[in-house]
Amino acid sequence: MEIPKFIEQIKKQYGITNDYALAKKLKVSQPEAHWFRRGKKVPNATICIRIANLLKKNPVELLIVAQKDRAAPEEKNHWAMALSAVDVMLHVPERPRYIPQKVEAIGQELRLLESQMLSYEGTIAYNEAAQLLNTTEKSVDSIMERWEVWKREGSLFPNFLLANQAAIQRKVKIRRVFILDQSQIKDKSQIVDFIQILNDQRRAGISVFFGLREELMATLIFQRLIAEFKKHGITGKINAEIFDNEILTFSRSYTNQWLGVNGVPNPITVLDQLDITWNPDHLRDLSPSALFETRYIYEYRGERPLKTQLDRFKRTLSGSKK
After folding, report:
1. Cα torsion angle, 202, 204, 206, 210, sign
2. Per-residue pLDDT for 322 more than 70?
3. Which of 56, 78, 276, 318 has its CA 20 to 30 A from that of 134?
4. Is the pLDDT of residue 320 over 70?
5. Where are the chain's structural domains?
6. Mean of all residue pLDDT scores within the chain
């Protein structure tokens, strides 16, 4: 019982030596004061607030302490956690400004946990994705239509790629499929970037695959994946990853930013928002894993076989227009 500790603080602070004086201070009967002091009774909310005011404490702290004292043994740990959270909130310094902002962000995360989905924006999103990868034990399956984020001047290079490499060294199996569309396979500069990205991925130990969006659109698997992401507001290209088949991330939006104050600035595609979910329905409907079973996903085996396949794509697309 913790309430008796606060009673002793009142006695010491106000020079109280007997239960009669204590009862008068708490505005309760003398027997009640005796029971509170001995831990035989837990005060109600009104008296908890009165105790807090006498000690110049936040009443919320006393209310939670009383709930903890009143709780069954198997429930006490939950109230202890709540008390710890309140204690942190009550002692957050105003400066430096980072500290209250950090505590507020943690509070928002805790409120979101009940929905089984967390959302992050900007650089925080990349940091969370890397942390998630660091906790992965077995596998990662990934689809990347906005593959330009992996370019060497892009936002995922090199930190997130190095996190992938570290996971590979821990025996995590990573499969990633990069999706091209018909406009991209006709652009030589984009193909150069694409090949460089695939080589970087394979060099890190990732199992790399590629596909043509127009071909994949003929499969029910890809059609259903697009339809499910539309339900979550994703109407454009899909970037999604599933970790150990138990938690999934997907990119909600991207934006182009210009890096550089001096000289010629460079355009960089950066992530606006990343969603993380462990909802079983989302894992079932949004997982890219089934894509690897389609005949329109090709393993990357080097630059020459890739270019041969790209030529075939071009011929297929040309034939479909006739």
Report:
1. negative
2. no
3. 78
4. no
5. 3-90, 117-321
6. 90
Q: Amino acid identity, residue 161?
A: L
Nearest 5°: phi and psi at 277?
-135, 145
Could you report the per-residue pLDDT of 207-258, keeping only the tens digit for each? Answer: 999 999 999 999 999 999 999 999 999 988 999 999 999 999 999 877 777 7
Write down the CATH number for the domain with range 117-321. 3.30.870.10
Nearest to 213 by CA among 176, 177, 178, 181: 181
Task: Estimate to the nearest angstrom the gap between the alpha carbon of 10 and the chain centroid.
Answer: 44
Report which listed range, 101-105, 106-110, 293-297, is most confident.
293-297
Output the 3-class SS for the chain.
CCHHHHHHHHHHHHCCCCHHHHHHHHCCCHHHHHHHHHCCCCCCHHHHHHHHHHHCCCHHHHHHHHHHHHCCHHHHHHHHHHHHHHHHHHCCCCCCCHHHHHHHHHHHHHHHHCCCEEEEEHHHHHHHHHHHHHCCCCEEEEEECCHHHHCCCCCCCCHHHHHHHHHHHCCCEEEEEEEECHHHHCCHHHHHHHHHHHHHHHHCCCEEEEEEHHHHCCCHHHHHHHHHHHHCCCCCCCEEEEECCCEEEEEEEEEEEEECCCCCCEEEEEEEEEEEECCHHHHHHHCCHHHHHCCCCEECCCHHHHHHHHHHHHHHHHHHHC
Which CATH code, of 1.10.357, 3.40.1130, 1.10.260, 1.10.10, is assigned to 3-90?
Answer: 1.10.260
Beta 173-180 vs 139-144: how paired, if at all?
parallel
